[in-house]
Every structure is written in structure tokens, then in C-alpha cells.
User: Fold these one by one.
Assistant:
Number 1:
Amino acid sequence: LVSRKRKSKDTVIDLGTVQIGDGIPKIVAGPCSVESEEQVFQVAEVMARQGVKMIRGGAFKPRTSPYDFQGLGLEGLQILRRVADHFGLKVISEIMSPADVEMATRYVDVIQVGARNMQNFDLLRAVGSASTPVLLKRGLAATMEEFLFAAEYIVSSGNDQVVLCERGIRTYEKWTRNTLDISAVPLIKQESHLPVMVDVTHSAGRKDLLLPLAKAAFAAGADAVMVETHPNPSVALSDSRQQIDLPTFEQFMTQLRESRFLPELL
Ligand code: PEP
Ligand code: MN
């Protein structure tokens, strides 16, 4: 069902005020984790000024260590919704349990299935039974075929509103947190009609590569790029090394516009 052979026309995810896959490159930005209403407000204010219409933020966080910050849960989703509505933004946030799907649909515009859950088949079926669009991230060590079959689980359960997100894969290379598989972008575009996003933050795991990786993503045909930004990254409760502060985020946007990878007015 996700194959181009079944449907040659590109799938466009229509969120009302913004579309993903309509041929106009988009940015998704926001903090790694929702930490407080004030934090999300500060980020959203800058995003709105930059014309960015989709905010991300983790409320249910898949952390490697059980002792690390696990997210604010439902309260985090409520914060995202309130702030997003204030600025006219759309919300993308991750859930990890099939039991949370129905609750999440009340607060988010796009449900994220994270890399660590790409093959959580019960979760894939659960989000597939909902009518809220899904952002499916590529697993840490997933092949292209496994990635597309994971999307197939969602679509075959009844939800054809799926965006595929390349977020870097595990390789032997240590200078980046993951290795951005840029070839995944044209490969997915050839094989599937679903829109493609590239998460440059989790791919790189460092701030100095975000701009060139975003340019590469758009040059390769990505429909959207995701980037994490935080008002004060050094005290962030997760991913403090790789989130960019708000002035740097504004520079990132300006440079993408100046190099014509983004339209003048988003
Ligand atoms: C995220 O986007 O918040 C995240 C945890 O990313 P990933 O699942 O790609 O590691
Ligand atoms: Mn993060």
C-alpha cells in the first residue's frame, strides 16, 4: 500500500494550515523534551516569527536510562496544545504505548512513533487505527525494507496519513551520533508515495552540522526537515549537546532562506 506501484501520486498530509508533501519544503522545530509552559512558549514565539508552523516536543520520552528525565506525560501534551493554539501551530509529539493513542489524538496533530518503536507492531497497528496523521521514524538499525514494512503496518490498519522520517542510522562512525543516510531520501521517494522528513538533530548529534545536513536533505528531495531548539540548551533535560539556542535557530532559518532551500515566506 505504501508502494509507488500501487499509487503513483504523492501523498500530501494536510494539517489544515500546513501541508507536508505538497512540494514546498517545511521545517519542524521545537525542544527535545517539553519541560515547562514557559520553555515551550519561548520556542513557539520564535518559530511563529520565522514562519514555522509545526512544533515538536517530547512528552513521553524513550530514554536509554530509566534514571533520565522521562518527560511530563499528559501534562506535556497539554502544554504543547495550549501554546501551539496561542501561536496557530500544529503539534507533533511521540507516544510509546498503544494505550496512549486515543488520549494523544485529543492533543496532537501528528503522532510520532520514535526510532526505538519502529517495529513495535502493536503500536503501529494502534496508530493505524486512528485518523490522526503519523510521523514514523526509521529504527536505529532498520533497513529500508523494514522501514517501509513498518509504514505498511500503519497504512494496512486503515491510516494512510504517514510521513517517513530518516533520523540517522547506527554505523561504526563515532564523530556523529548517527550516520545520516541521505540516500534514504531519494530511495523512499522512488519506492513510495509517502512524504519524507529528515531529522538533522538526531542524525548529527552535534550542532555544527545541522545547516549542511538540512541543505543536503532538501537537495535530495526531502519534504521537511526537523530540528531541535531550546531557549537554554546547556540546562536542557535531554539532548543538551545538540539542541540549538533560539538565536542560532533564527540564523539556521535565515541561512536556509538565503541559500534558497526554503521559500522567502514560509
Ligand atoms: C525524538 O524525536 O524526540 C526522538 C527521540 O527521536 P528518535 O526516536 O529518532 O531517536
Ligand atoms: Mn532529542
Number 2:
Amino acid sequence: GNKSRHHGELVDFEPVKIADVIDTTMPTISEDYEYQVLIPWGSPIEPGATTEYLGQPDSRPSSQEAALQTGLGHDGMWFFSSDHRDYVKFGRHFRPRCDEGMLCVNHEYGTNNHALGKSQPENLEDVRLSQNVHGVSVVKIKCNRRGHWRVVKSNHSRRITANTPVSFSGPAADSALLQNPNGNIPLGTINNCGSGPTPWGTYLTCEENFNGYFGASLGLVPTEEQERYGFSDQGFGYGWYQFDKRFDLSNSDYANEQHRFGWIVEIDPFDGTQKPVKRTALGRFKHEAIAIAESRNGRIAAYMGDDQRFDYCYKYVSNKSWKSAIHDGESPLDDGKLYVARFDDDGTGEWLELSIDNPVLAQRFDSQAEVLIYARIAADLLGATPMDRPEWTTVGKHGEVYWTLTNNSQRTEPNAANPEAPNSDGHIIRTLDMDDHLGTRFQWEIFLLASSTRGTENVFTDPDAAYIDPQGRLFIGTDGSQPDGLQDQLVVFDTNKDNPEPKRLLVGVSSDEITGFTMTPDQRTAFVNIQHPGNGSPSATNFPASFDGVTIPRDCTLVIRRKDGGIIGS
Ligand code: FEO
Ligand code: CA
Ligand code: CA
Ligand code: CA
């Protein structure tokens, strides 16, 4: 049915209609596209991983097995061609291969019911299993001549879990607030939500709801700082603290473990022995995702959301060009300035620097390290604008930045940048820095209120994941209950248009979330994640298995292609 098609449009595929979605146990994709399932939970990555387990879809791995396989909660990800390092060296005219590369995939979380088959851990082994389905997978994948992608062996491939040794870098690295009385080395990354690549060829993974993994065996009277970061005596019910003292806020030996999470972590996809590095200059908050833009002089700006109701939008700017920093053996992410956004009513805004040189912050904090560790409190003091849950960011061809604001059920007072109270459907804001990403002033506009799509064939709500391609196609993945009986979806906009309309490319399965969009450099293969299908419960979907009501559903990646081999989104 392509009667109504406008040929030559940038976004030209036949969208999935509401009426096309009849089976919520399997995804529905545009008739112009096809998908393949890749790396479901339990796929072998590291040597010694058992494959036996994948043939037994009802079984769960041991904690040791889990640490060698893909985990749960597939979220942010990025595809790095095997030639990516040459691409970094030779620039955009170099054509990297598109049939082989490293796929970095975040494993945001798996509930205890999904990972363990019960709501609470009963021993340390249960906790280790839960911890080992969290983290990041770095996995080599390759496409054969028939267009089928599979995992292949590589010594760059690895699992990073809640127990992998990591290091700290940047202004807060040596702070006493990051050392524990018992001297334990820094371990692990958790709740790895969104992500972003760097211009120098590494992967950044973002620690979001880290507070939920801590609890307090003796109960908790939270400090002001703990309150602001949402720590409580039970956390989100994972129960790790009952068997692993590291996550027990009542254990004074691990008093500062809580400060070791909430960071952006840098991973080298081409060095399986590299220790992941937590970059403290980017601040500690519930990091959703990161999008890096390059300025005229090679300095970089990183745009980042803090996903909580009434939390903020941030920007980091490096002091040096990334090339000269790398040349000098430094990281562009260790030396720079961190800002938080104030959105003014007139469509402009200001980036407020989180600096200890500001007397307002010097009165509250002793050092720049403290400002960064308690970035949320510093941002409060500067008068940043409370937003409707800042999720992903992505930078378009004119340097414009798209920010997804997923929803805010608790907003009672609208402001210009968050005009709906309550905001049940979410919106997308577009900002443009007035000085090529380096400035302290920006312009902003509402790109779209998701509520405006209600009552139309193209309805979608709760925008979350975001990715824009070089031609201006904006891909948005949703996370929240969708209207009209739809499941979470992937929609595409042509941002070159004055009034861009979403077109529905994919609809997921019952209770899942669509997230983590990336492509091969030729834009002919895309990867997107089906996160927590059925919320881990087999009664609604058993995806990627077909419906039987009993097989454990598994988070997985979908490889997406146009049937005619064309550009994704076209
Ligand atoms: Fe992990 Fe805010 O989504
Ligand atoms: Ca998200
Ligand atoms: Ca979300
Ligand atoms: Ca999620």
C-alpha cells in the first residue's frame, strides 16, 4: 500500500498503523522493513561462557555464567566499525567497513523477578547474579553475505558488571569522598541507561538510578545529600545490601561507596583489558545519556540530562581541543567546565557554571570535587530550571540539540520550557548554543508536545531515546504506556520540515521499552533494543521466543534493515 507515498521525502517508509498492531507478543515493523534478533540475555561473550543455557529458555544462569554472557536491560548502545580507529585518524572521507564491528550495549537493570525468578535475594550468590546481569557488554558482531548478523570471537569482547574494577579520573578522583575507610578499590558500574560515543572512538555509558541499589540494614535518617540523591533504607527493592556490605549505607567501612556511582564511564571498545574510567568532571547525577558536539576549534561540548522529575539539563565544555588533549596524553573529559541550564521565558537561556569560584557555591562547598560530587545541590543553588525528566540528547547537523523530556506526573506549576501541568505525555525541546557550543547563552524552542499527536494516526507519548542522522532524520524511542492500545514504539521525524510529524517505524511487545538506537556508518543497518519485554514476566510475551506463556522473555537487540537495502528511516 504505497498509494499515499510522497516519493523523494526524507522519511518515506510506510508507517505502522494503529490498526496494524494486532499481536503484542511480537514486534510490528513497517512493511518496508525487516528485523533480526541479536544477543538476547544469556548470549555468550567471553571465553568459557556456556551456550547450553540458550537452548533451555526457562533456565537462569549462575552468577559466574552471567558474568560471561550478555545481561538484562539492553539500553543505550553504539556500533563501532572494526575500522573505527582509522576513521578517527583519517576523518569523515574514510569509509569504514559496515559488516563487522564492536557493539557496546548497556544493561540498565533486570528486576529480581526477571533475573532470579523471585522478588528477593536469599544469599550472596543471588546478589551476585543480579549484579552480573547489570553493566555493559562489549561484543564483536559480523554480518555474513546473506545479511545475517552474529557474534564472533574477539579479545576486545568483554562483560563489565557491578563488580569489574574501574578507576576514577578528573577533579574529584582523589577526593576523600570517594575513598572508603576500609580502602576497597573502586568496583563496577550500575544502572547503565543511555550512552554516547566520543570523537576519539570510545564509548560512554551513563549511570542513572544508582541510588536504588543501596539500602540500610539499620535504617536510614538521610543526610541532605542522600535525600537529594534519593537514597532510602530499602532502595528499589533489589536487596543487595542484605548480603553485600558495599551497598549497605549503615556500614561505616563503606561510608563513601554511595559516591562512587552516578557518573559517566568511558570504555574503550578496542581494548578488552582497559579499566573503565569514571569521568568526574561531568558531575554526579542520574545520568541518562550524553551527546558530544565538536566546536569550531576542536573543543567539545557534551549535552546531558538528569532524569528525575524537576531535575536539570547540563552541558560540559572541554578547555582544550580534543585532539590536542589526546595528543598530550590527557582526556578531554577531565579538564573542562560543567554548566546547568536555566530556560528563560523569552526563548533564550543561560548556561550557569558549576564552579567553586562562584561565591554562592563556595559558601556551601569546600572544593570543586564536592561541587561535582553533589552537582544536583550546586545546580539547585544556581537557580537551574526544573524540567520534566530530561532523558536523551542528540545533536543535529546545524549544531541544534534535541532533549527528550519524558513526562512529569507531579508538575503543578507550568513554566515556559515545561508548559503542561501535569505533563503526562512528555515533550521534546530543541536548543541552539549562541556561540558554537562554547557559549553561556542559548536559544530554545519546543520542538513538539507529544500530547499534540493524540487523536492522530501518528500518536506517541513518553519520548526517551533519541538519535539524529546526518540528514536530519530524528529517531525517538518511547518509554511509557502508549495511547490507543499501542506498545512502546520507534518514530521518525524529518527535522528539516517546519511542522515535522512522527512516522511509526516499529512497535514493540507487551510492557517493553524501545531504546538504544545506533547504525552502521553507511546508515543501512540499524540496531535498536527491546528492553524488559513483558517486564520479565512470561504471561504476556515470551519474546524473542514465540508466545507459549512460560518461556522467560529476554531483552535483546533488533537488527533493522530496509527490505530494499536503503537508508534507515527513508
Ligand atoms: Fe533509564 Fe531515564 O531512563
Ligand atoms: Ca531512558
Ligand atoms: Ca524512561
Ligand atoms: Ca529503561
